[in-house]
Amino acid sequence: MAVPQHAPTTIPKAVVDLAGDGRWMSQHNRFIAETHDKEPEVVFLGDSLIQQLQDTNVWRELFQPLHCLNFGIGGETTQNLLWRIAEGTLDVIKPKVIVLLIGTNNFLNTAGEVAEGILEIVRLIREKQPLSQLLVLELLPRGEKPNRQREKNSHTNQIIREQLRDTPRTAVINLDPGFVAEDGLISPQDMPDYVHLTDKSYRKAFTPLRDIIIRYLDSAELPSTSTQGGLISRDHPADEL
After folding, report:
1. What range(s) does the SGNH hydrolase-type esterase domain occupy (predicted)?
2. Separation CA 203–CA 63 (nearest Å)
């Protein structure tokens, strides 16, 4: 499946501060400061779906004890995260595991362009953290009813799975517990605005991720497992490690 070359999604770009309050840059600077003060085992990178995870009971119960840092910022596109990584987010720390979820805010781009942006982020992470295990989370479905953005996210996931299938120390993970019902609808009990998750739906989607992370943390010193790439199912994590 062809992926367009040199898509705009691959060009690092800081967020334009239209509001004039500097919030995005302030968050980036805070994250940089945290990398100088802490030694995380796990780092989460992404947009609001990652950022809001840290406000849940799931984060406090399951991920905080694993010495995780959450570097998610709401509204980010692949370009914005590329800029942050290029500007030092991963330069000081040496996490054993990096979790990535980005791309749903690139709604003006094609699936191929979004995929290329994600692949460029993977390339940059691999360059800066060659020994870390990278877990690339598939984009979740969005919208109450079937829609083109949901279809595009699914297409993007397909491209990412194919492109990263044999990439060392990189695994693609599908955490969707079945948010789309048989009638094609997403419940507001899972996504009140049909894109962001409730505490309950975070627990359904992200609890299996903890087990996957722990397995990689436990096997971080074993080349036979820590160098493996491929696709991991949320329902069968043990079979893939």
Report:
1. 44-203
2. 11
Give Rg (Cα) of the chain: 17
Q: 193 catalytic, yes or no? A: yes
**Tokens read off for 149:** 């953005």
- Tokens representing 34 are 């945290």
Helix (H) or strand (E) holding 43: strand 42-46
Q: In DSSP terms, which residues pair with 2 in a beta bridge?
A: none
Give the max Cα distance, the chain. Answer: 50
Which residue among 48, 132, 201, 226 is the active-site one? Answer: 48
Q: Classify 180 as helix, strand or coil.
A: strand
* 196 in catalytic set: yes
Q: If you ran DSSP here, which 8-state letter would residue 74 be given?
A: T
What gap in Å lies between CA 142 and CA 45, rounded to an integer? 20
Tokens describing residue 196: 């962001």
Q: In the chain, what are the domains?
A: 8-15+23-218 (3.40.50.1110)
Tell me the helix, strand and coil percentages in the chain, rounded to 5.
Answer: 45, 15, 40
* C-alpha–C-alpha distance, residues 226 and 138, integer Å: 20
d(CA 120, CA 213): 23
Of these residues, 67, 187, 196, 219, which one is catalytic? 196
- pLDDT averaged over 10-residue windows placed end to end, the chain, 241 residues: 71 94 97 97 99 98 97 98 98 98 98 98 98 98 98 98 96 97 98 98 97 89 43 52 45
Helix 148-163 × helix 111-128 angle, to 10° = 40
pTM for this prediction: 0.91
48 is known as an active-site residue:
yes
